[in-house]
Amino acid sequence: MSYTTNPFLLKVRMQAVMLVRSGWSMRKVSRYIRVNASTISRWCQKAPPKGSCGIATESSKPKTSPSDDIVNEILVERLKHGRCGNVVHQVLLNRGFNVSLSTVNRTLDRAEFLKKKSNGKDSIETRRDHSLSLLATLYRLIQYIFNLMFPTGTDPESTSTH
Q: Region 54-76: what's the mean pLDDT?
């Protein structure tokens, strides 16, 4: 899903492109529409040759998902170092993995390894989260890997060979 629901944005983009094509400078158009000149430049590159239709908003969601190997490496490094996503990301880069920081943080968040930002009050739940032992963290990792290996609805007994 796109990050804007403005029904007029497609036409505005195309009108900006038409102004540039009619002789206006990109800077003049950007000031007129109140967007950055580099945005006008991108719109001009994406616009069809004839201005018959608007320029659609592209999705901002990731185009690919990390492989299970990369997800496992992220979680193992998190357990090994017990540090934030930035440190885990740097360790993986040093080891030759091509992974972005946002992928590392998203993976850690999905596995519930990231602490949520508090509103400044130290609640009982926050204190409890801070006191999780390594054993509890390891248990969550094992659960996560088990759920990857045996998605809900599959029986581990039926997948083993007898």
A: 77
Buried b (16+ CB within 10 A) or exposed e, 96-115: ebebeeebbbbbbeebebee
Quote the CA–CA distance of 51 and 119 in Å, as a whole number. 49
Q: What pTM value is reported for the model?
A: 0.43
How far is residue 125's CA from residue 139's CA, in Å, rounded to a whole number? 19
Neighbours of 69 (CB within 10 A): 9
Residues 116 and 13: their CA atoms lie apart, in Å, by 38
Give tens-digit pLDDT for 107-143. Answer: 888 888 777 666 665 555 555 555 555 667 777 788 8
Return contacts of 17-21, CB within 8 angstroms, 24+ apart.
17/43, 17/44, 17/47, 17/51, 17/55, 18/51, 20/44, 21/51
6 C-beta neighbours (distance < 10 Å), count: 10
